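Query structure, 456 tokens:
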């Protein structure tokens, strides 16, 4: 898998530039020089991310009987992370270069380039004068209380609050095995080398499911969840052909994991992990039962057995999936008109993911009746979806601006809408499709149900 070369730095540069120019993603703290490894989502990026999270929640929690949601605190007690093993062992091996002063992860040195002194020291290569690797804990610590006497951590994964609340969820909801607890939320890691745009950052969001089951079902459910998650990616517009499944070999898995699949995507900077589906056995509940001194066993009413459930964990990165959606959607199309070359930039998001679902234009902004009808249509659609009104410039240029941000449909109110030329067309609008650029006429009354059937 690693042999397939999918890298395309030029494409990646174009994507990053479009994302800034059109307001998808900005560097955090840019005004003051930027905060490394942190990103802000602008208006369009925030909508895209929200669409992704809403769809994940709908498919994972709302449409399933066996998964419940939760929303845990970000600030995490030291004892929790002591028991989970994060305080002792959540680290990456780090090396420093004495020449360029660069700091690198020791486990993938060959992928780095020296940014500071490329002529002296071309990255973490044999020319670098590297220190011996040492362990670098990835957690971000903070302090509570008037004198800062109490230590807490920004959680490094959402999973731990799920394990710690597993018994409360079980007791308060009367659920039976197998069942899952799902959570979407921020996690924080002091990554040694945040890189590849929003792919590896220090503050990021995860979409995690901890699926509790009987021990004998763990392996089978891991395979089932892998398939469910692959279908999810297809549904949001990431084709199966661009996904790779890495069956993580024995030596590379966490010591407590009996099986781990990495779902990888062909990013323009290489084939990289989007999500891990791991069979974590009863490790997590075991360490928290021991650390807290509280029983976390499940009592099976039918068999009268008492045991620690095993856990299958599909854990996806929200920001990485947003990046995959953007990379997959980005397209440049040559439209040769009258012998002149004309490049159209289109973000081919699925309508369900697109930040803006429909744009509404009056053909002429000076025509008061066209503007009035546009505003009326806009008002009628806004409770259901994101609508954008635009009356500036030629209609062709307005279409192009929407193509570039991935709006799947544009509606133009024109003279036919007013019934001025062909009375039969009164009350209809031009509906233009982003991908085919084809146009059709639709009555204003049909617009809402037509769109609702396509954009959710
Ligand atoms: N609870 C399991 C867990 O956290 P992980 O493989 O460390 O496992 C799961 O993380 C997912 O979270 C990854 O597949 C990735 O999508 C995302 N992720 C992890 N570290 C990240 C980072 N520094 N920046 C962005 N996303 C990250």
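Result returned for the query:
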């Amino acid at each position: 898998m690693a042999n397939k070369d999918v890298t395309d730095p030029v494409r990646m540069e174009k994507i990053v530039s479009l994302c800034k120019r059109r307001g998808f993603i900005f560097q955090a703290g840019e005004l003051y020089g930027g905060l490394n490894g942190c990103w802000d989502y602008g208006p369009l990026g925030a909508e895209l991310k929200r669409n992704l999270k809403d769809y994940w929640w709908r498919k994972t929690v709302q449409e399933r009987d066996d998964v419940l949601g939760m929303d845990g605190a970000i600030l995490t007690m030291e004892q929790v992370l002591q028991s989970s093993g994060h305080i002792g062992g959540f680290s990456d091996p780090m090396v420093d270069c004495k020449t360029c002063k660069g700091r690198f992860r020791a486990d993938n040195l060959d992928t780095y380039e020296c940014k500071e002194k490329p002529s002296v020291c071309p990255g973490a290569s044999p020319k670098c004068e590297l220190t011996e690797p040492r362990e670098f804990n990835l957690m971000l610590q903070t302090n509570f209380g008037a004198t800062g006497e109490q230590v807490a951590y920004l959680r490094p994964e959402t999973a731990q609050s799920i394990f710690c609340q597993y018994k409360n969820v079980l007791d308060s909801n009367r659920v039976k095995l197998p069942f899952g607890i799902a959570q979407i939320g921020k996690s924080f890691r002091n990554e040694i080398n945040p890189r590849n745009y929003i792919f590896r950052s220090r503050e990021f969001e995860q979409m995690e499911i901890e699926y509790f089951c009987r021990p004998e079902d763990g392996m089978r459910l891991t395979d089932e969840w892998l398939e469910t998650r692959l279908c999810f990616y297809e549904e949001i517009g990431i084709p199966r052909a661009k996904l790779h499944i890495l069956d993580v070999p024995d030596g590379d898995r966490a010591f407590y994991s009996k099986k781990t699949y990495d779902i990888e995507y062909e990013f323009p900077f290489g084939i990289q992990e989007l999500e891990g589906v791991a069979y974590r056995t009863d490790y997590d509940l075991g360490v928290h039962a021991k650390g807290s001194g509280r029983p976390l066993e499940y009592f099976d009413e039918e068999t009268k057995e008492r045991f620690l459930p095993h856990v299958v964990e599909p854990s996806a990165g929200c920001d990485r999936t947003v990046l995959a959606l953007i990379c997959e959607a980005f397209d440049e199309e040559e439209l040769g008109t009258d012998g002149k070359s004309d490049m159209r930039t289109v973000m081919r998001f699925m309508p369900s993911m697109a930040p803006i679902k429909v744009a509404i234009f009056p053909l002429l902004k000076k025509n008061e009746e066209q503007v009035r009808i546009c505003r009326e249509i806009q008002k009628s659609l806004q409770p259901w979806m994101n609508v954008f009104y635009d009356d500036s410039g030629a209609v062709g240029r307005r279409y192009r601006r929407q193509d570039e941000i991935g709006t799947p449909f544009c509606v133009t109110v024109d003279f036919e809408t007013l019934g001025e030329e062909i009375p039969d067309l009164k009350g209809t609008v031009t509906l233009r499709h982003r991908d085919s650029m084809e146009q059709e006429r639709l009555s204003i009354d049909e617009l809402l149900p037509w769109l609702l059937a396509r954009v959710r």
